[in-house]
Amino acid sequence: MLTNADKFWNPLLETLPREKLQDLQVRKFRRIMAWAYENSKFHRKLYKEAGVQPADIKTMEDIAQVPKVEKSMMRNIQKKEPYPYGDMLCVPLERVTEFRQTSGTTGQPVYQPDTWQDWEWWAESWAYILYAQGYRSTDRVFIPFGYNIFVAFWAGHYGAEKLGCEVVPGGVLNTEARILKMQELRATATMATPTYVLGMADTARRKLGIDPAKDLNIQKITCAGEPGASIPATKRRMEEAWGAKVYDHIGATEIGAWSYECMEQPGGLHVNEGLFLVQIEDPETGEIIEEPGKPGKMVITAFDRIAQPCIRFDSKDIIMWHEEQCPCGRTFRLIKGGVVGRADDITKVKGVLLAPTAIEEVVRAIPELGDEYEVTVTKKGDTDDISLKVELLPEAENRKDEVMAILVDQLRVKTNLRYNISFHPYGSLPRYDVKAKRFKDLRKIH
Description:
single chain; alpha/beta; Rossmann fold; GMP Synthetase, Chain A, domain 3; 2 domains; eight-stranded mixed beta sheet; five-stranded antiparallel beta sheet; 21 strands; 32% helix; 24% strand
């Protein structure tokens, strides 16, 4: 029987009773708020204007009164002194040892400075994730991403090393070379976006004649960057393609690695509540949601990041609390189904609220369709028009009408919308190595 020391990276924090955990969170919030108040002109001005000081924070209800920070605020102070971070910076420039920036998928990239202490915190955050997913010192981890200014799996690399894993960086190799290196070295684990996990499997089969599930030794895959690993149909495709367990985790450049799926795969992700405070806010009323199953906007605080603190950051991610506690024994709460979508992405089409993840679940659940698809929303006069391009696998060509009927029916059931659907030859739609851009709302352009 496994002991807590075998199951948990930090047995004390991960099994702390809820009441003690919340007391710890309040104390850690007050500490990071005081640090920002004393060391950042931006934060001090923000809090003074709101009439709140660190000493006022005594309960969770007090925390909810602290003003939020949005990405637009961070962009507005960039390229000002101390250059290029502006006065959100809480340490002298000479203490900054790491530069990263956001991917810019939702606008101008945000710069993120970290001290060496922050970078060790990043690795510690990832150690929780990887240990919960079964990574141990016996693993050889192949990391197939281009090491650059986006954080991506940089911290995953350091977190794996912290666990004692052997890490193989596959940054400059192309996809085929990465697959062959995994095979050559008998790598046991890898990390990538769901898009690239599926793309690697497709390349292995069709270009190299390698079946990842039979010819490679990958036993576990950690995903990030997209919601796919928390979408049952996409997770199933990846696990079947690789013959491996696929785990999700969620993080962001300006936040950190804040949640993880454990080996129980309970249909949700643990919030790392020892290092982060996650609050779910009703988008309309601003009230904090505690009840399970009710979606809202995530507001998050990282307790231990000091160079550019993340305090009550409005992430725009839509999440909800899970109704159940995970059987793994962790007292950290679960968010159900990962990130449901972004407040920016969930949009009304023909008067119906649509989350792009619902379309992914339908497409990926139909085995006759390829992994790639593309959704475009336009306006024709006063009417919304939504088009869906999918790839039909060659072996399903003679069943096109049957597949179309299933697709139309499932989209109607799951999204309550009708689509202009077109089949395309396998391999003709765009492929992505990092974050995919499959949903395009062109109404916002006109």
